[in-house]
Amino acid sequence: MSFRSPFPDVDVPALSVYDFLFGSIDEADLDRSALIDGPSGAVTDYRTLIAQVDGIAGALAARGIGVGDVVGLLSPNVPAFAAVFHGILRSGATATTINALYTAADIVKQLEDSGAKAVLTVSPLLPQAAEAAEAVGIPADLLIVLDGAEGHPSLRDLLAERAPAPEVSFDPATHLAVLPYSSGTTGRPKGVMLTHRNLVANVCQINPRMGIGRDDRVLALLPFFHIYGMTVLLNAALSNRATLVTMPKFDLVEFLSLISERKCTYIFIAPPVAVALAKHPLVDQYDLSSIHTVFSGAAPLDKALGGAVAARLGCNVRQGYGMSEMSPVSHAIPFSDNETPLDSVGFTVPNMECKIVDPATGEEVEYPTGDGVSAAGELWCKGPNVMAGYLGNDEATAETLDADGYLHTGDIATVDAHGVVRIVDRLKELIKYKGYQVPPAELEALLLTHPQIADAAVIGVLDEDGEEVPKAFVVRQPDSSLTEDEVIAFVADRVSPYKKVRRVQFIDVVPKSAAGKILRKDLRAPTA
Ligand code: 4UV
């Protein structure tokens, strides 16, 4: 037996993302502000945004890009991201959004794996983008630098072409809109195939209870390239004709100033920002009274921490749960719900069905009655927002999506008799650092390239603030005098900063199963 969302199903129109968001926009909404560039205050209204989306789609089509092609997008949160992202989708191409913190080597892997034909980026990221584009054979005229750079077309150049948006036809149920990368339950990052229907569905599923309204000024701090920012900010906020205030990178003073100057009302965060909001003395120096809700997701929010944010700011705090593979939101505490505790991720969103399965036996747990809570088990979810699979990786797809259409999340959850879900542990190997994915397999492979390292395993451990950080267990070669600091520096020199190993412990042997799989639970036990 499974359990369904307690809420009635919603209609998911069979439309492309563009038609869903902008196809029937009210004339009166065209003059509303869609985006405000946080740092400069420059405003883009809906009319201008849509014209830019059409112009970009036209310019891409003029370059032979359309249905069946993949285009890379490497950019922090700037207003042009919205135009470019939706321009790519409007052209019929598929957008592969790339983490703006990636190294050139990381970018190469994603461009290669996705088969991207063009890349759009910004000048501060041009060195790594150009190195990667060259490595995969993308010519300079298909490396578009939004704010301009010698030898590359700019956004202004594309828009000046005034090329009409192409007539494209595809089935929204099967055509891929985006390919974000996620390591899923194991291994290296893989292309998550999300269709137009997946993205439209998730907005329809969250809109009734997330409560983003026309008059909201939503702070767009969470990166648009990550599925949380993509669906909740770029798609849900725009679908409600709200205003996004973009912030390219986190800086506490900038964050607090933007909220108070631009009167932001709805703040979407990952838990580390909650730590700052609850504890940092600077917070008291800013007028944050415009905020009505802080919504946290992407990693577990501590209940007391969430409560401290609510008390200090005098606002609502809510939590949701999601995964790239679910476009991403499957669970959330409703906007209007002051009862559901913050140590939970709330209720299953409409149109979704879940199971909690004991990983040891493969049996579903008993569902509770009265005031009961189920036993913990792996959360499986099914619905119109669940991915089509991993690009070019049938094996990983088969391990994650079962024949009945359930996605095995790799997270351990409980459900109570009211349908409130709690994420209590993680079965999969993934580490979340400040909400970003750190795939242990990638760090382990890197550590093994060190001549003095015989074997290595990486897991997530909690730091003093209760935030997860990557820790390496390292087996040194005989006679090696390698130090912990040297291991940390070796990794730090080769990965982008959020993937750094932050703790090291030397051990004699990495515990492994008979099949050679690292027994991460055994590594966790003594550290816990
Ligand atoms: O694939 P991903 O990087 O995706 C995300 C998406 C999180 C979102 C997005 C929109 C929301 O509205 C929202 O509330 C959350 O993070 O990583 C997926 C994994 O992150 C962990 C869990 O292990 C997922 O499988 N995770 C995400 N949210 C939570 C969480 C949470 N609230 N509590 C515990 N773990």
UniProtKB/TrEMBL annotation:
Residues 31-391 form the AMP-dependent synthetase/ligase domain. Residues 442-517 form the AMP-binding enzyme C-terminal domain. Its EC number is 6.2.1.-, 6.2.1.3. Keywords: ATP-binding, Ligase, Nucleotide-binding. It holds the Pfam family AMP-binding_C. CDD domains: 4CL. GO terms for molecular function: ATP binding; long-chain fatty acid-CoA ligase activity. PANTHER family: AMP-BINDING DOMAIN-CONTAINING PROTEIN-RELATED (PTHR24096:SF149), LONG-CHAIN-FATTY-ACID--COA LIGASE (PTHR24096). This is CoA ligase.
